[in-house]
Amino acid sequence: MKLGKYLLVPWFSLAVYTILSMYNGPAGIAPYRELLGEREKILENLDRLHGINRELEGTIDALLYDPETIRVRARELGYGESNERFIRIVGLPGGRPNEIKPGTIRTFIQPFPSGKSYRLISFCLGLILFSLFLAGDMFLKDNNYSQSN
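RE: above sequence
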């Protein structure tokens, strides 16, 4: 059984690599949670865009069918009828209404690193386990040798 424990080293390294990859790898649990959070943000943004779309459709309908709305909008843009005169007062806020912004620009999250670092970590842990087994065997061998003398 002395040599059998050395066969545990590659299996231990493989288990460490599997656990690290499963939790934090490119297709692991942590990136999946991040993607779910991003999905929720995108769905909220989509709902806001639907609301803006409904407002714009109402504005389009009003501009198509209501002449008074057309006059008000033309005055907001600086147009008027031939017999009207405009007086501009500089310094007062709210000359023109705020433009409707089309939506929020979403940025994506940075992808998680590849599993190369996990390979290195699992390999180093395997080497540490191997060296512990080797040191333990050498210590027991020296201890047995010193007791026999």
